[in-house]
Amino acid sequence: MLLAEKRCIPCHGEASALTRKDAENYLKQVQGWSLSDNASRIHREFIFPDFKTALTFADHVGELAEEVGHHPEICFGWGYTKVEIWTHKIGGLHENDFILAARIDAIEEA
Predict the structure, then answer these.
(1) Beta pairing partners, 92
(2) Element (H, E) at 45
(3) What backbone phi and psi angles, to 5 degrees, belong to 22?
(4) Are 98 and 9 in contact (CB under 8 A)?
(5) Residue 84: beta bridge partners?
(6) Under CATH, which number does the domain 27-109 receive?
(7) In the predicted model, is pLDDT for residue 12 greater than 90?
């Protein structure tokens, strides 16, 4: 099943963060995303032609985050939106983070 077709599952603090190797394997499924140096977060910058488009995209990401209950860091300005994702409860990455990344990518494609 593709990541964008999956749904985030509630993650409890007892879950383990992904290893670097596991995170790198998931990263292959979300083009354009990068892994932080310590492999605890993923991030991507989306480029747009103007401020309004970047704002609209940031709004759509926020709506998706609320819908799935998984909240990334979102920063935007004229012509860009940056998104950083990790699972706060475990202080690292979980499959849910890559599912959210894939669903954010689907917003950009639409």
Answers:
(1) 87
(2) strand 42-47
(3) -65, -45
(4) no
(5) 43, 73
(6) 3.30.1360.20
(7) no
> Measured between alpha carbons, how far is residue 85 from residues 50, 53, 89, 96, 99 in Å?
24, 21, 12, 10, 10
Q: Which two tokens mark 23?
A: 């995170």
For residue 98, give both structure tokens. Answer: 């890559």
State pLDDT tens for residues 25-50: 999 999 999 999 999 999 999 999 99
Here the tokens at position 110 are 């639409």
104 within 8 A of 98, measured Cβ to Cβ: no
The dihedral through the CA atoms of 53, 57, 58, 60 has a sign that is: positive
For CA atoms 29, 34, 37, 38, give the dihedral sign.
Answer: negative
